[in-house]
Specification:
mainly alpha
Length: 185
């Protein structure tokens, strides 16, 4: 059964009150959605809390879902919004450093030398504002205007935070490479 047909059938079964379909939808999407929540939150526990809250919203609003789109895309948006709202509610967003950083060229980095978990570890070390903007722009594919609206910041601040995130990631990766070189020698 094609994914869209499978998803459509699964949503219909959920809307019809089939409890096993709810579990099936959870099993079908939880891993991917948790990975997204982890990118935004400071810990796996916080990400799991966000995921639980997101599923409550998903199941509550499933009947109003526009079935012309992918259910996964809709669910991802709910997880991202829930993550951002949690950060905002916890007032982590209000402490963003909004200063414009000096413009430096972002060099090509040897990212293929690192495991996904290592790269995720670097992203987790970013300040909350930089991490949120980096995830939304570089990973989720939103533009700075959309990010500004989602995070209630200016477009310039979004660009600044993204630039700062790239600079900080570059420093972390270079530092990590230098540590590896000194261990080998």
């Amino acid at each position: 059964m094609p994914a869209n047909l499978y998803e459509s059938n699964l949503i219909q079964r959920c809307c019809d009150g089939d409890r096993t379909a709810y579990r099936e939808l959870y099993d079908y999407t939880a891993g991917e959605l948790l990975a997204i929540a982890i990118r935004y939150m400071r810990s796996k526990q916080e990400a799991e809390d966000v995921l639980q809250e997101a599923y409550i919203k998903i199941f509550k609003n499933l009947a109003s879902f526009n079935r012309q789109a992918s259910v996964k895309t809709w669910m991802i948006r709910i997880v991202i919004n829930t993550s951002l709202n949690t950060l905002r509610k916890d007032q982590h967003v209000s402490s963003w450093d909004l200063s414009i950083v000096e413009d430096k060229e972002f060099n090509e980095l040897p990212l293929d030398q690192f495991e996904y978990s290592e790269l995720l570890g670097f992203i987790h070390q970013l300040p909350v504002g930089c991490k949120s903007v980096f995830n939304l722009y570089a990973i989720e594919g939103y533009n700075h205007k959309e990010i500004a609206g989602m995070l209630e910041i200016s477009e310039g601040t979004s660009k600044s935070q993204y630039h700062r995130a790239k600079m900080l990631l570059q420093e972390m990766i270079i530092s990590s490479e230098e540590k590896l070189k000194t261990k080998v020698i």
